[in-house]
């Protein structure tokens, strides 16, 4: 029934005042009755969700008591995830419609009820990360004029091919469906049908159980697609025609059963020139590496993934990347293939921004210790050119075939002899400096460590990074150790090595990794640490969404384990700052530098950047700052002011990561909550700090108080002004519950820290377990102001877990 606006609003107000109709609030906002019905049906379907007071905050059964919170207004307790649009049609009255519903990681239990279509103005539906949200997608859902439908990483099932995905409302209205993400569910059957005109820009069906042959003309009406990801399914037959796409930017067909792909997938030549990422990993291409350089239509392709495609024979990179020709390809991944020989050149090894991954090929695994510069670059991502000195035979040729005077030749020999003598003298001085110091660390012979690691065998490698690798070693007395092999060929690098040995060899604390010894042999610089059984905190907690291995171990990180980690790291840092023989600033506190032993007790690792500070000093002014983006204190990064409070800031960021289970930069959050410190401050001001808690973390009422205590401590640690941050002694006491928390301030200036200068990579950093291989870290930055050279390579968000 339609009501004339002039008298209709008055009638509705009268009905509301008489308690018969709940559609007008005290401010004159007219709320659509159909929306009430739809939301109540959703609440009835999902009210068994765990922790509804958090996951479905303010969702209630409607009662005409004037006290039930209205769905749309935060000032009166709006319903979690409900987004509304208001239209003012006179001085006192507004029309209000529900236009969006966004519930991510909300632990929803149940199904999507068909009555959701009562919310007939809904344009955005985002229900993600709810594995207990099951059942099929109700066909009625497509009656809505949805603009965005995102249902990824739930437990939905059923088939997709019998649903009319593009409704008449969508094609004729103002909100055509442009984004459809159904990835990470349990859908079966064939590829969905899209009849009629389609304006989709993003179609993501990855990680389901879809199968069968895709019709050759399935994309005929979908020419506007920019992102197509159908990876990790069971599609068979030939790849359907892709030549109609005009603006395709990302194409992921990986891990399917397509046929007819050898020797060169025929559809490749028909791909549009706009393509920037192509992933064919897990497809049976086979044969020799295709001549991709002849495909000039892929003029802006920057990332190409061909892992596990059975490619064999010789890989001629020199032909693929001709010298002097413009290069757009920045990432080439050919992991786990059958490549035995690689043709390369020095220019490719030194190419800025070019990453080539060949791990798992015979080229890397058959002779891992005779790798040349190219092998180290493509198998370990350690890309540098080793200076080549003339051999004895070359010297003879020079003497015989040239007219160089003998005096010049003698002079050259003397210069080399002098350089060798100075290097040996320098090395002896370093060893003498260590030997003369009163340290407990033992000096190991190189052959002893080479035997312990089986000549640094690949299967003994625990991790690798830009500055070295870590190997498991077994000494003759069966003591298991971690051998950290550093690639430090400069005098500055060796000085840092000596600094690390002298600085931490006598540190003894249960929450610090113990340095057992060292070795300095020619260009070899090695550190021997105690072996820590488990992975680092980054892999166990923060990488669980990208790794099944990480996910399985993350299950044991309950609140008690996380609380013990927080307290242990705090005690270890306090020991460094105040209780050790000299005050030490770690400078690189981060998740990948926190190792967990077999009892899940934390140990702080990687002291390559550690810096002593004299008792009479409180602040050191540095010309360069070093550390990891995302954890750096503002005064240190911007002005080079280094003090113990820089570690306090980093520890505060770490606390937020431990409690939330997310990295300190989360692109799934709203723009003003992307960075953990800014999100924590915002929630603190709104008295909703517990919203930072990991949604998968189940806690009791008493544990919830501990969670809040940790979060409030973290907020105090990440204040912009260092003098407002507590000391590590105060932090450790607050976490232990032996000191009262001071209420964190509400002043906006206390957060006045430009987080955009402290950005971190979108991918997890390379971690060298059981000790980080960074000395400095692989993603450390240099200089008071960070620049792009300090960040890791960014890979597309839609490239899943390669």
Automatic annotation (TrEMBL):
It is found in: Membrane. PROSITE patterns: LRR, PROTEIN_KINASE_ATP, PROTEIN_KINASE_DOM, PROTEIN_KINASE_ST. Residues 766-777 have a biased composition (Low complexity). Residues 456-741 form the Protein kinase domain. Keywords: ATP-binding, Glycoprotein, Kinase, Leucine-rich repeat, Membrane, Nucleotide-binding, Repeat, Serine/threonine-protein kinase, Signal, Transferase, Transmembrane, Transmembrane helix. Residues 1-26 form the signal peptide. SUPFAM superfamilies: L domain-like (SSF52058), Protein kinase-like (PK-like) (SSF56112). It comes from the Eukaryota. ATP binds at residue 484. GO terms for cellular component: membrane. It is a single-pass type I membrane protein. The chain crosses the membrane at residues 397-420. One of its GO terms (molecular function) is protein serine/threonine kinase activity. Residues 761-788 are annotated as: Disordered. This is Protein kinase domain-containing protein. It comes from Ceratodon purpureus.
């Amino acid at each position: 029934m339609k009501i004339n606006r002039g008298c209709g609003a008055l009638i509705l107000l009268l009905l509301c005042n008489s308690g018969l109709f709940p559609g007008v609030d005290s401010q004159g906002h007219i709320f659509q009755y159909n929306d009430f019905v739809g939301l109540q049906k959703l609440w009835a379907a999902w009210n068994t969700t765990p922790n509804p007071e958090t996951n479905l905050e303010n969702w209630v059964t409607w009662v005409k008591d004037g006290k039930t919170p209205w769905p749309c207004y935060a000032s009166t307790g709006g319903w979690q995830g409900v987004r509304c649009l208001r239209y003012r049609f006179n001085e006192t009255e507004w029309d209000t419609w529900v236009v969006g519903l966004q519930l991510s990681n909300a632990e929803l239990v149940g199904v999507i009820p068909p009555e959701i279509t009562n919310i007939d103005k809904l344009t955005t539906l985002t229900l993600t990360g709810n594995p207990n949200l099951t059942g099929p997608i109700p066909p009625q859902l497509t009656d809505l004029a949805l603009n965005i439908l995102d249902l990824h990483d739930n437990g939905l099932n059923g088939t997709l091919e019998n649903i009319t995905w593009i409704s008449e409302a969508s094609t004729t209205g103002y909100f055509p469906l442009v984004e459809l993400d159904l990835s990470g569910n349990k859908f079966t059957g064939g590829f969905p049908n899209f009849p009629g005109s389609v304006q989709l820009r993003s179609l993501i069906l990855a990680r389901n159980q879809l199968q069968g042959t895709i019709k050759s003309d399935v994309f005929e009406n979908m020419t506007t697609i920019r992102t197509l990801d159908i990876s990790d399914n069971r599609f068979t037959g030939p790849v359907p025609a892709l030549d109609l796409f005009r603006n395709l930017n990302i194409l992921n067909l990986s891990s399917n059963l397509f046929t007819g792909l050898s020797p060169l997938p025929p559809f490749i030549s028909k791909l549009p020139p706009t393509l920037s990422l192509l992933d064919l990993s897990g497809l049976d291409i086979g044969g020799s590496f295709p001549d991709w350089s002849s495909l000039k239509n892929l003029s802006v392709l920057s990332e190409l993934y061909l892992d596990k495609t059975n490619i064999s024979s010789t890989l001629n990179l020199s032909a693929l990347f001709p010298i002097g020709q413009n290069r757009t390809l920045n990432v080439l991944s050919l992991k786990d293939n059958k490549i035995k020989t690689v043709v390369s050149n020095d220019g490719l090894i030194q190419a800025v921004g070019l990453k080539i991954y060949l791990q798992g090929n015979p080229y890397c695994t058959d002779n891992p210790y005779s790798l040349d510069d190219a092998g180290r670059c493509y198998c370990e991502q350690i890309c540098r050119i080793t200076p080549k000195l003339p051999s004895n035979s070359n010297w003879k040729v020079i003497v015989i075939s040239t007219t160089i005077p003998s005096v010049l030749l003698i002079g050259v020999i003397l210069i080399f002899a002098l350089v060798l003598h100075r290097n040996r003298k320098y090395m002896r001085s370093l060893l003498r400096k260590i030997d003369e110091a009163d340290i407990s660390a033992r000096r190991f012979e190189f052959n002893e460590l080479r035997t312990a690691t089986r000549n640094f065998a690949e299967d003994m490698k625990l991790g690798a990074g830009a500055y070295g690798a870590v190997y498991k070693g077994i000494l003759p007395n069966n003591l298991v150790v971690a051998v950290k092999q550093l690639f430090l060929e400069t005098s500055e690098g060796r000085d840092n090595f000596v600094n690390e040995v002298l600085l931490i060899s006598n540190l003894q604390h249960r929450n610090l990794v113990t340095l057992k010894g060292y070795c300095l042999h020619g260009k070899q610089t090695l550190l021997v640490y105690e072996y820590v059984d488990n992975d680092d905190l980054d892999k166990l907690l923060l990488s669980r969404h990208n790794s099944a291995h990480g996910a399985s171990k993350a299950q044991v990180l309950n609140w008690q384990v996380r609380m013990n980690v927080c307290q242990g790291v705090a005690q270890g840092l306090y020991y460094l700052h105040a209780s050790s023989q000299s005050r030490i600033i770690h400078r690189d506190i981060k998740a990948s530098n926190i190792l967990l032993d077999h009892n899940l007790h934390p140990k702080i690792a990687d002291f390559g950047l550690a810096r002593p500070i004299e008792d009479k000093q409180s602040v050191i002014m540095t010309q360069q700052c070093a550390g990891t983006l995302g954890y750096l204190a503002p005064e240190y990064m911007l002005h080079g002011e280094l003090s113990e409070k820089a570690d306090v800031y980093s520890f505060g960021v770490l606390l937020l990561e431990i409690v939330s289970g997310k990295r300190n930069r989360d692109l799934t959050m709203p723009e003003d909550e992307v960075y953990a410190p800014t999100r924590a401050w915002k929630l603190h001001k709104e008295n909703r700090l517990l919203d930072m808690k990991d949604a998968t973390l189940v806690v009791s009422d008493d544990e919830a108080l501990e969670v809040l205590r940790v979060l409030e401590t973290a907020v105090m640690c990440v204040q912009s002004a260092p003098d407002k941050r507590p000391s590590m002694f105060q932090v450790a006491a607050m976490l232990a519950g032996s000191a009262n928390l001071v209420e964190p301030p509400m002043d906006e200036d206390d957060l006045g820290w430009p987080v955009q200068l402290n950005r971190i990579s979108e991918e997890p950093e390379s971690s060298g377990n059981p000790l980080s291989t960074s000395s400095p870290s692989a993603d450390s930055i240099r200089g008071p102001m960070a620049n792009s050279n300090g960040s890791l390579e960014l890979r597309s968000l839609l490239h899943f877990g390669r």
